[in-house]
Every structure is written in structure tokens, then in C-alpha cells.
Amino acid sequence: MRPSWHLLKRALLILALIMVMVGGIHLTGPERAADLNIFGAWVRDVAAPVQHAVWRTSQAANSGAAFIFSLGRDTGRVRALEEKIAGLEGEIRRLRAVANENKRLKALLAYKTASTEPSIIAAVISRNPTNWFGTVVINRGKKDGVTRGAAVITPAGVVGRVLTVSGRTAEVLLITDPRSAVGSAVYETQVPGIVRGTLAGSERLKMEYVVKDEPVRQGFLVTTSSLSDLFPPGIPVGTVTKVEEQESGMFKIVYLKPAVDLNRLEEVLVLLGSDSG
Asked: In this structure, which topology does domain 119-271 adopt according to CATH?
């Protein structure tokens, strides 16, 4: 009985595999490392693609395992870097704040030096939360020579006047408070008037008793005048934003934007020579 073709193919395949294995064993011997015959070269060439595929697969598996085992370490490293970045950003903000403070203090010192009025620099330490544009508290008081009614300014312009005084602090009434009044004049035309605060909580001023026929336009500067018994003349008060003509009477109302950004007030200059008792 003749063997079937299927059995014959199987036998030939087994024989070929045995030959490859024997050849591979022969080739891997140390004494054959430098002597490669034709059969060995053929086996190496045939096996090369398979070896390369197996090597790539093992490398990928190793990389995947390394990635999985390094996740904890990488997460910790990323967290540490994020904390370091946050710390550096905080330091940058702090340095910017210090630089801005130095700039403001330099301007105050320059103004203090140029002024003939005796004065003292003070820092704003709190403000009235119920009336943001009404009053602030500064860290200078009676022991520093501050008196009730003393004028308070910055190099940009008028801030207000001292309302109450303690040993180490003083409460300053801002010019935006309705209780405030400053004798002023339009710089371009010297038209006089009285500048007052508007409604509580509003960062706006109004200039009253401005003669109706006098020219006043948006953008004009208003400064303190000789009519003020508290502030030296020529200190900026605000800039005209609106002129409201009255249908009757002799006067018109002029609205101003304060010269000083009272919402960001941090340091001030107290004029020690000015007071109202």
C-alpha cells in the first residue's frame, strides 16, 4: 500500500526542520564562528526576517513593560515639576509686586523732595468695605505728626484729607466721598468751582458752581486752586468726562474722572503742614 501524498509531505517537512536544527547547532558552535559555509549562510539569510520580527516584538514588549513600571515615577516627576513651576510663577509675581512698589515709592520720594511742603509717606492698610470709595486707613498717626484735616496726595494728584487720627493710624476721607469738597479750577481756562464726591460707592467727581458761559470741554484738566484752604494750588484733581448744562440758573455741572486711581491706592503722601484743626 503506497503512502499517501499527505504523509509524504509531512515526512519531508520534518526532515527539513531536523536539517535546519542540526545546521543551526553546528553554526552556533564557537569553532564555527569565523567559518561560515554556503549552507550556513543560506540558513542565516532564511532565518534573518524571522529573527528580526521576534527581536522587534520583544523590544516592544520590553518598552511597554518599562513604560507601565515607570508610570508611578513619571507621575511623581511631573507633579514635582508642576510644583516647581508654580513656585517660580509665584516668585515672578512677588518680584513684579516689589518692582511696582519700588516704582511708586521712588515717585513719592521724588515728589516729596521737590515739594516745599513737609510731608510723610504712609501705606494704606485697610478701607471701608461698605463704602469702597469713601475712606481708607493709613499706617501713620499722631505720633508721626499727622493731624486731623491734613491733605493726602500722590504724585498723580489729590487723594483726600485726614478725617480721624489715632496714635499710629489715620482715617482718610477720599475726594470721591460726598462729604468731600475741594476748591478747584479748570487748568486750561482757570474757571473756578468746587469739586465734590458723588453718590457713595461711585468713582466719579462733580464740579459745581461752574459759570455757564465759561468754556469747559471733555478732556480738560481740573486742579486745586488758591480757593482751597487745604491743598496747595496746582495739584491735579481729575479730568473732565462730561459737561451737564442746566436749563435754568447761572451754573453748569462738570463731571470728572479722579486723577488718582483710588481703587488701587497703596501708598500716599500726607502733607504735615496742612490741617483744619
From this structure: Thrombin, subunit H (2.40.10)
